[in-house]
Amino acid sequence: MSRWAWALALVSGCAGAPAGGEAAPVAVRAKESTSPSAAPAPVPGEVPAALLPEDRGPFFPSLTQVTGRVTGADLADTTACASCHTEIAAQWQASAHAFASFNNPIYRASVERFRTARGFDTSRFCGGCHDPSLLVDGAMDAAVAASDPRAHSGVTCRTCHQAEHATFDGNGSYRLSATVLKGPDPEDPASVAAHKVAARPAALTTAQLCGSCHRAFLSEATGQPHYLPGTDDIGPWLHSVYAGSAVMRIDRETSEQTCASCHMPNEKASRIDPAADADGMVRSHRFLGGHTWLAAIRGDEETTARVQAFLRGVVSVDVAAATILSSGPGGPGADAGEHAPADGAPVRAGQRVVFDVVVRNESVGHNFPGGTRDAQDTVVELQLVGSSGKVLAAPDEPHRLGSAMLDEHGVPQWAREIEDLRGLGYDHTIAPRDARVVRFAVDVPEDMTDWPVKAVARVLHRSRTEALREVTCAEGRSRAGKAYAATTAKWTGERIDACAEQPVTELARAEVWVGAGAPVPTDRRRDGERLYVRGLGLLHEVQEQVGRAGASFERALALVGEDDADLRAAIVAGLAAVAGQQGRAEAAAKLADDAAALAPGHPAPAWLKGQAYSAVWRWEQAIAPLRSAAEAAPRDPLAHAALALALGSAARPAEAIAVAQRGLKSGARRNYDLLRLQALALADLGGADVQAATASQLEHRPPDEAPDWRAACQEASPACARERVPVHTHALVWR
């Protein structure tokens, strides 16, 4: 038997599909051979060295490095910069970066618990991103006093502007220059010019600098028994159109975006600032994201309002279908079945109705919600409102967009108990430009007369889970919490209230009318688009139900005119994705070709064709289209992993390792699939690093106990059993 045993070790369907929802073979072997000599003979001097993740450094398990000596006092000092850059300093002072350290009670509640459980030195893992001023002085290895200025500094000017190098590895994988950035002589043009150059190191304008902290992982070095990926805003971005990868779907409505273009847009300066351009614009240093509660804790109403404005509209919501399951005691009637779109559905008294609510990530360049997904508390709800204006039905429990991390007993951890995290239970966040379907079922009473009924879907954002809010409030009321709050008030004048109410922000709303007297929409193109987006969400159904996505795409195609080539191409590509997931490779390839004819030059049809052939192990046929897709998405690690899988499974290890290493270099040094593909190729090629490569891929493999933890969660909790199903149903309770 060949040594190749290729596998894309991705989370199984009920625990969450691969990013973007593409199907992947679980285990595939190359063709049989009767002799080890069937493996290609090594070519002396041509076998590349293994690309391995960096796992050590002066501040490990943080990956932060310094060139020479950098002191915490230097990093913590913002006054030297603020003396000139008054606008930028004021913006930064209101940002989450300024409150990233122990002065943030949300973070402090989590990190102090982690330090108690795992030891001070282990918390260096946190320090590279939250506490660089403490980290570089070795102060994370001891108790941190509320009066220590370094514990209030957060991510400062010099942290970013002295970063001379950064990578996508995460856990603070940046390198600081030892040359302290100093202010220029304003009267000396040469000094000013030199300062501008020094203040813009090469790493500053890269996504790698942001990614060095907005990606994280746990490992044995942090007290976990195995490697565990954590926060990752970079992986989804690299696999999206925003990073130049258009392989997932045909989507003409977006363009490439960086972290800074979204989170640091140009803003009119209200103060004189030498960084302003000729029009008085500066790059915003507010770093707006989802931190509404942090702003409320600080009592900063202006920043709360800015964050809420930033968030509104980043997702859309739609009531896309209403399925009538019964017609009361008399049994099903002629109106039973699916009505899509839901507008005007002939709902009557005595029926059981299931509504499909579709949420789409419209403009977030990473998963939504992002950051620490298990701490997010964005919810999707559906209410039924009678014509009288009375709320008739509401969810017994809204659907939460977020993830659940489990401990070793399969119990979800809702308060950022980092020390106890062992594996992923489920993840309902939404990848860039992707969609998710949430179902709500209701039994309409026999005596219902308040017709027509308005179905109102909303997406509501809160920054953190209620469990995390409770522990944060308790920390704020502790002796240490009061000491930190007093120090913050003394130094900045801000009054920290760790028990402040969380702002609730309505991100999106949709309304449709059903029942007698309900209006019916007449915009066929718009309805076709709605059903296409619903189809994207239904691609996440379990394998047995993915045909529902096909039905939604077919209905969408019937509504869209022949002259709307882009939307028709997207819908046909959706049908190709369905056929590929169902194992109908030839049908998928034909549909992909049809989509390519409608959208010439777009890489998504090639990706879909390659994925379809890979799903049925037709590796040689998969290689050409997957190569075309990977070439069109040079920074996308998943595109390279798919191609490397096909090449290796076709007994072409020299090509496989070259492609796998391109994927590793693009920003996925800890991607298990790429590490595995590299190790297997080296084994076949006789590489000198095969032992180290094999050890690295084993170190990053998913834990063997993960299915047991998910099963325990499902067995112990009906809510967990429901949430593990990618598309599931919540009950509406009639009032």
UniProtKB/TrEMBL annotation:
Cite the entry's keywords alphabetically: Signal
Signal peptide interval? 1-23
Residue ranges occupied by any Cytochrome c-552/4 domain in the UniProt entry: 80-161
Q: Which domain of life is it from?
A: Bacteria
Query: Which PANTHER family does this entry report, sorted A to Z?
Result: DISSIMILATORY SULFITE REDUCTASE SIRA
This protein is called Multiheme c-type cytochrome
Q: Which source organism does the UniProt entry give? A: Nannocystis punicea
Q: What is the lineage of its organism?
A: Bacteria, Pseudomonadati, Myxococcota, Polyangia, Nannocystales
